[in-house]
Design a protein that fits this description.
The structure holds 2 protein chains of 2 kinds. Chain A is an all-alpha fold. In chain A, 72% of the residues lie in helices and 1% in strands. Chain A has a single domain (48-324), classed as ABC transporter involved in vitamin B12 uptake, BtuC (Orthogonal Bundle). The longest helix of chain A has 32 residues, at 304-335. Chain A is globular and about 60 Å long. Chain B is built from 10 helices and 14 strands. Chain B folds into 2 domains: 40-152 and 287-314, Rossmann fold (3-Layer(aba) Sandwich); 154-284, Response regulator (Rossmann fold). The termini of chain B are far apart. Chain B is elongated, with a radius of gyration of 22 Å. The longest helix of chain B has 33 residues, at 2-34. The chains are: A mainly alpha, B alpha/beta. The A-B interface holds A 44, 46, 52, 55, 59, 95, 100, 150, 154-160, 170, 243, 246-254, 295, 298-301, 304-305 and B 57-60, 62-64, 182, 208-211, 215-217, 220-222, 224-225, 228-229, 242, 245-246, 249, 253, 270, 330-335, 346-347.
């Protein structure tokens, strides 16, 4: 009879090694995504077609780009609820500044990104020095930005998209990969690299997991906060531009609800509200889980209300599967503490 | 054996009984629209202050409708002021807005609701104080808080769109429907109108009814999946032009635009541009001038003239060949063809 302490020894060494390497924990959401894609492919062969899959990435791009910024903020221990409002404002501003002229595209995009970054900067300053709740402060910003968008637009989405703008972003490279999908994947890759390889990225985890220790270590948390929220605002504006490129017309509430889609993707991807955990890779996988779920129920042709029910169940099951896989890892780490590494940190 | 047989018979009886009940309900609704309202108690001497309790002002159709209200008010010297409140989709705020307008002694309240039932007590308060209320926009309301309605009949609109689509499809083929937000009067009435019209066209098959939430991007995303699901779609029922563009784009990107007949949309400028370019589809109007009609109706009530409970502003069909008279190519997509003079159009 084996004792509790002896039990690990009877496990196949390869499995133990695999679990101890933390692969399951770090990749749990990807495992869930692959499993969900497998189920989806059994239901519809559309999920085996690369053009359909890349189109799904294009659908996800506007929320996805904004979700990258939200991930960085949440790793640092904050939250940004203003991204939906910034997406709406950015789409309206970009269209108005383009005014149907191809020559205005560069100026319009630069100005839009600047406005998004400025809103993020304001969020960062308020949070860093006012020390208020990021939840309340960014919610307040969202309300104010929606109001600003209404005043600016007068209730109609003024502005005309310049010729060439949509054509460029919706062009499929090699007849397969939409530029918009590439833009999102490129933004995610850059953010993941920044998060893993730069001092800025590592500082986010330190401030998020232990702000006091970060201060004692000499990290300038206020500056980091401002920079991160500025990045989030900038990426939300880029999400607005992506939305304009996808849909061709802005509406004054085009981004409403996107903040919750972004939050769902970020949390599903393993980044927590407490900070110090998760990362951009998980967010990309979490986002794709959401979009596969929504597209799957849609492509199955279920009744609208059944679609919502099934999509909700898929998300809950995906989340539960993710939790199960990561908690397995935590259990293992309690059994072998010497192998335990910082969760989700790069 | 006896029990199932009894159950089947009971079910058949219920179904047979339900058919005339549906017709009865439609008949009751029609009678209510035609009902004459005695307005002597609302009669007042000018000048009039008109209050507009907007449930929301954040979509372009509503913005145009409000401009029509302002324009019509400016044409009547007896109207001294128009006060506008915006509830921003918040029923609680709209109740407060209506109470504010009552306390500001307005003589007439025009409104479009966020939630019709939620604001009824506030509207009833206005009516009790002798302030007539006119529901302005898409739906007909029959309740003590609403003296009269200037409305657009979604069932008639849906029927016109469906019949034009079936005509363009030569009466046969497989269709999908793109509807507004599930559960709204617009979505319910349009789908009902489509199904009723289909009874006369046995070779039309409805593959799927989807809800695009008046959102171009969402309509496009849903259509991308419909295209994967159905190897052949012959027609699209989409009365809202804003969604029709998203649908058409998805067909175009899939290289399947030639296979499909698009139904008329409405006079949303982005859709009119598409119709002008592709010379197909057309439009069945959802007239923004309903705002003007509401002001006229309100003035008749303030003059003590009897009015009908419902004033339906008719929709009109615009063929693709006539669309150039309505499209404004230099204006944004999010814009409406209207009869407003240039200086009254939204800036």
């Amino acid at each position: 009879m084996s004792t509790e302490a002896e039990r690990p020894r009877v496990r196949p060494a390869a499995i133990v090694s695999w679990l101890n390497a933390g692969w399951v924990e770090r990749s749990a959401i990807w495992v869930v995504l692959v499993a969900l894609l497998g189920v989806a492919a059994l239901c519809s062969d559309a999920f085996l077609q690369p053009s359909y899959l890349f189109n799904m990435v294009r659908q996800a791009a506007p929320v996805g780009v904004a979700a990258i910024g939200v991930t960085l903020v949440m790793v640092m221990g904050g939250v940004d609820l203003s991204v939906g409002a910034v997406i709406s404002l950015a789409a309206v501003v970009a269209a108005v500044l383009m005014d149907g002229q191809a020559g205005n595209i560069g100026y319009a995009l630069a100005a839009t990104l600047t406005i998004g970054a400025a809103i993020g900067f304001a969020n960062g300053v308020l949070i860093a020095w006012n020390r208020g709740s990021p939840f309340i402060l960014t919610l307040g910003t969202a309300v104010a930005v929606y109001g600003l968008t209404q005043i600016y637009s007068g209730g109609t989405a003024r502005g005309i998209v310049a010729p060439g703008f949509r054509e460029f972003f919706n062009e499929r490279i090699g007849g397969l990969v939409p530029v918009l999908a590439l833009l999102f994947l490129a933004a995610a890759t850059i953010a993941a690299l920044v998060q893993r390889t730069t001092r800025f990225g590592r500082s986010l985890y330190l401030v998020g997991s232990n702000p006091r220790a970060a201060r004692l270590a000499g990290l300038r948390a206020a500056r980091l906060t401002v920079t991160t929220y500025t990045l989030s605002g900038l990426l939300a504006a880029l999400g607005g531009i992506a939305l304009l490129a996808r849909s061709g017309v802005s509406s004054t509430f085009a981004g409403r609800g996107f903040e919750f889609d972004a939050l769902a993707a970020v949390v599903l991807g393993g980044t927590t509200f407490e900070g110090g955990r998760g990362g951009v890779g998980g967010t990309v996988a979490g986002l794709l889980v959401l979009f596969v779920a929504f597209n799957l129920v849609n492509i199955l042709g279920l009744n609208y209300n059944v679609q919502r029910l099934v999509a909700g169940v898929i998300i809950i099951v995906a989340s539960a599967a993710y939790t199960y896989l990561t908690s397995r890892r935590l259990t293992e780490s309690r059994l072998w503490p010497s192998h335990h590494t910082s969760e989700g940190a790069p | 054996m006896k029990t199932p047989l009894t159950a089947i018979c009971a079910a058949l009886v219920l179904i047979v009984a339900a058919l005339p009940l549906t017709s009865l309900a439609q008949g009751v609704e029609a009678a209510r629209v035609q009902e004459t309202v005695a307005t002597a108690r609302f009669k007042k001497a000018a000048p009039y202050r008109v209050g507009v309790a907007a449930g929301y002002l954040s979509n372009s159709w509503v913005v145009f409708c409000l401009q029509h209200i302002r324009y019509e008010a400016a044409r009547h010297k007896e109207i001294s002021e128009v006060l506008v409140t915006d509830a921003g989709f918040n029923p609680g705020k709209q109740v407060a807005d209506i109470e504010d307008l009552i306390s500001k002694n307005v003589n007439l309240i025009l409104y479009w609701p966020v939630d019709e039932k939620a604001i009824q007590p506030a509207l009833e308060k206005a009516v009790v104080k002798g302030i007539p209320t006119v529901n302005t926009g898409g739906g007909f309301t029959y309740s003590p808080g609403t003296v009269a309605n200037a409305f657009i009949d979604q069932v008639v609109l849906g029927d016109m769109v469906a019949r034009q689509l079936f005509k363009d499809m030569r009466g046969k083929g497989k269709i999908v429907a793109m509807l507004p937000i599930a559960g709204t009067t617009a979505a319910v009435d349009q789908l009902a109108a489509l199904r009723t019209a289909m009874k006369e066209f046995s070779q039309i098959e409805l593959l799927s009814a989807e809800y695009g939430d008046w959102n171009r991007a969402k309509a496009k995303q849903i259509t991308e999946n419909l295209l994967q699901r159905h190897p052949r779609i012959d027609g699209v029922f989409s009365p809202a032009g804003q969604m029709s563009i998203g649908v058409a784009e998805a067909f175009e990107e899939a290289g399947r635009l030639k296979e499909v007949v698009m139904s008329p949309g409405d006079e949303y400028n982005g859709w009119l541009k598409w119709v002008a370019k592709h010379k197909r589809g057309g439009a069945v109007t959802f007239p923004t001038r309903v705002g003007q009609e509401a002001v006229r109706l309100g003035l008749r009530i303030l003059n003590g003239e009897p009015v009908k409970r419902g004033l339906a502003v008719p929709s009109e069909y615009i063929s693709p060949a006539s669309i150039t008279r309505y499209v404004e190519p230099t204006r944004p997509d999010d814009w409406w063809a209207s009869t407003l003079p240039e200086e009254w159009k939204p800036k």
